[in-house]
Amino acid sequence: MQSLFWADRLRNLATILVITIHVSAPVAHQYPDLNTWHWWAGNWWDALGRPSVNLFVMLSGFLLLGKDYPTGSFLKKRFTRVLIPALAWMPAYLLYGHIANNKPATLPEALIRLVEGPVHYHLWFIYLILGLYLVYPIMRPWVRQAQERDFLYFFAICALGTWVYKILAVFFGIRIGLYFELFTNQMGHFVLGYYLGNKVTAGETPPVPGISPWRFSRRQVVGLAWALIVSGTVATAVGGYWHSSAKGIFQPFFYDYLTPNVTLAAAGWLLLARHGWNHHRLLDVEKQFAAASFGIYLAHVFVMDWWAQCGFWYNTAHAAKSIPILIGLISIISFGVVLMIQSLPGGKKIT
Fold first, then answer.
1. Which of 184, 191, 196 is nearest to 159 (CA)?
2. C or N: which end of the chain has fewer Cβ atoms within 10 Å?
3. Whether residue 224 sits in one domain with residue 77
4. pLDDT tens digits, residue range 262-320?
């Protein structure tokens, strides 16, 4: 049976990359002068972190679409796994927002926020993942019988419904009239994770008959992975600078999760993990961090804001120094907070 050490390592990376975005984005998106080393430091870190959400979605696609679950038990288990922690943390963030900014101001407003989402800027992922769980029972039978050409057709239509649609709308003011409901948002990444996770190198036996092996060796696939990571990250950072400079104000297009540059970088990270990070057993700390990843995602904004209240934030030192320090501190402290919560009665259910 194939070991999945790489999946936990990739989950850990994605968790740290989420924190990377939330620490560096205030510099990259709000700093007024783009022609400074301070802004470029934030911009590079922000660009590096952008594949994070896509990686979580791709991992979910790989781990879920490869298995058969009865619809009822699957939805019950998965919704319980996400909703119980969400319903514990969302009210906490609602209360935090009320105390800090009087938003929401009333209980009815808070209830509306819970339904409309997100109650805090990072919790939109909860709504996304629950939507993907609802689609799983429909997509699983399709991927079971799909052949290589079917996957390629699916990805081509996803690229048309996300990449081409957004490029035409943002840069040319043209909107495609066709509806691409099944092929928009994160559905392409959900299936792409399953596809790339099951695509083996030349000479290996494919675990899924419908997915053709790579024509490359493992070493060549790892090289391809690095090329995708580097090119995707550079395209995000440089493209963001070019677009914002041309408009005279920050433009978010190249930092969007549904752009070619971010998707290519995410695909590169998955390929690197799948074919380069699976040769050594997980250390205990890696297992613990992976098991705590959802809790870290939920808790890290509280930790991040606490550091800001303590007076240490990206603007207390040059961004090239403060951002990596903050990423490390917030990751470690959030991990410690989640371990502490998990040691309490019922703590594991809310993390």
1. 184
2. N
3. no
4. 999 999 999 999 999 998 999 999 999 999 999 999 999 999 988 877 776 666 778 88
Residue 182 in tokens: 């099944």
Q: How confident is the model at residue 229 (pLDDT cuts 50, 70, 90)?
A: very high
Same-domain check for residues 213 and 325: yes
Q: What is the pLDDT of residues 18-76, one digit of tens each?
A: 999 999 998 988 877 899 998 999 999 999 999 999 999 999 999 999 888 999 999 99
What is the extent of the structural domain holding 281?
5-66+146-350
Task: Report the SS3 class of residue 70.
Answer: coil
Of the candidates 97, 130, 145, which is a domain's last residue? 145
What is the domain count for the chain? 2
Taking Cα atoms as reference points, which of 330, 283, 323 lies closest to residue 304?
330
Q: Do 249 and 189 share a structural domain?
A: yes
Six-digit token string for 148: 């290589």
Which of these three, 88, 115, 145, is where a domain ends?
145
Distances (CA, A) of 171 to 8, 161, 251, 299, 321: 38, 16, 11, 37, 35
Q: Are residues 139 and 164 in the same domain?
A: no
Structure tokens at 191: 């299936």
For residue 346, give both structure tokens. 């019922």
For the stretch 149-208, pLDDT in tens is 999 999 999 999 999 999 999 999 998 888 878 888 899 999 999 999 999 998 888 888
AA letter at 220: Q
- Do 151 and 126 lie in one domain? The reply is no
Answer yes or no: do 300 and 222 share one domain: yes
Q: How far is CA 59 from CA 4, 104, 107, 167, 172, in A?
A: 11, 34, 36, 26, 34
Close Cβ partners of 264 (under 8 Å, ≥ 6 residues apart): 228, 231, 232, 235
